[in-house]
Amino acid sequence: MKILVTGATGYIGKRLIPFLINQGHQVICVVRDRLRADKSYSEEELIYVIEADFLKPETLSNIPKDIDIAYYLIHSMSNSSKDFESLEESCAINFKTYIETTNTKQVIYLSGITNEDELSKHLRSRKNVEDILKSKKYATTIFKAGIIVGSGSSSFEIIRDLVEKLPFMIAPKWLNTKTQPLAVRDVLTFLYKAAGREKLYNKSFDVFGPEILTYKQMLLQFAEVRNLKRYILTVPVMTPKLSSYWLYFVTSTSYKLATSLVDSMGVQIIGKPSNINKTLNVKPITYKQAVELAFEKIEQNSIVSSWKDSMISSGRLRKNLHKYVNVPKYGCFKDIKERPIKDTNKTIDKIWRIGGTTGWYYGTILWRIRGYIDKMVGGIGLRRGRTHVSQLDAGDALDFWRVIFADKKQKKLLLYAEMKLPGEAWLEFKIEDNLLKQTATFRPRGLWGRIYWYSVLPFHGLIFKGMINKLVDV
To answer: Which three-class secondary structure state does DSSP give residue 144?
Structure first.
């Protein structure tokens, strides 16, 4: 079958595509930014990448009409827009309007469990999208999940941060909220097995794990898996705003995402039983098993996708990566350094491992201080790290940078700064004529931007010189 996957670069979409390929389906991947499409897609005969934005109906014309099934995986936990719900609504309407002109027989949507009278902002939006997607031209199959547990998922990484950093926690009362966590592998199984199943047409199913746990129990069970002793005291006096700050300062999440999570975590999420597990022959695993499997992926350095690489985690970048590929030449300050290379392959390997657990090769304490300062002023700091220790692709998060361009064949890596700055900054590594050229570019915004540049100039001179020397020293 020919299957359309929206949100193909997202946490679920990126993981679902290999399952569909293994089933022999032809997959049409719709992405807003072709630069962010996985490079392996171009090497796979059964994958075709289309650039389109469902907020812009005029960009949808390239999507083929002979589609059999479409997955709608477009959603966000971002709180960056006051019009969040209307934007999600517009996306769904534009998707439905176009899909109704195709041969699509089934639309499969991953939503959230909604069983409370008072829904969080994001669950309310998911429910609205469910209603919009229903059509007389095609059938819908809706899966409604709660907390998804897997390597790189936002819930997993936030719990990991809390458990591994805090031996004792004074936590908000919403840690006593009940939920039914579901392993990401089970979510994917439900999704790919539903393709073409007529028994599931025009039906909605809650999908959930075998246990009902509070967030506190999830934290303590996570600690057991990691062989850590942890103590948690919940207090009723912590307001949603204080709770958001608590998550923001302790974990790698952004403040906007922390606010969204706190809003959602106050709502009990218990699924309604159905026969879907038996119909699709799925036996969801326990929370502990999901955590153990996630760490197997982490130890094997084989995390397929991470919430940190989504634009939700972005501190500044909001538009397509193309906008930032061409580094400005005028009205900018530049720090340019060049060094002859002893071994090109080893230098490229070092460049591609930069940041995260590897660090920045020189002045580590200064990089950390800059990260702390950024966090204190509402930025993302260094704690996002990176998803893969040695692999970089356009769109990946890298500490407080975003990968804009990464191509080993062209021997070039371009990063865009997402820390709080009075201007814009790029960092480029490029090898030409057996020389490594390292260029830091800063485009100031007003007088404060210029003051900032000159104030950090002494540190830049030290850090950038030491960094390039380490990169060529093999």
So the answer is: strand
Cα 94 from Cα 86, distance rounded (Å): 12
How far is residue 386 CA from its own chain's centroid? Answer: 11
Directed axis angle between helix 215-225 and helix 154-165, to 10°?
Answer: 70
DSSP state of 232: E
Q: Which secondary-structure segment (H or E) carries 398?
A: strand 397-398
CA distances for 450 relative to 30, 104, 239, 333, 336, angstroms: 41, 55, 39, 9, 18
Could you give the CA distance from residue 79 to residue 312 in angstroms, rounded to a whole number? Answer: 9
Residues in the chain: 474
Angle at 292 between CA 288 and CA 294, to 5 degrees: 115
Please tell me the pTM assigned to this model: 0.75
Query: What is the Cα–Cα distance from 417 to 400, expressed in whole angstroms?
Result: 6
DSSP state of 311: G
What is the C-alpha separation between 272 and 16, in angstroms, rounded? 24
* 200-211 residue pLDDT tens: 999 999 999 999
The pLDDT tens digits of the residues spanning 227-283 come to 999 998 888 766 666 766 667 777 766 666 666 666 666 677 888 999 999 999 999
Average pLDDT value for residue range 42-65: 86
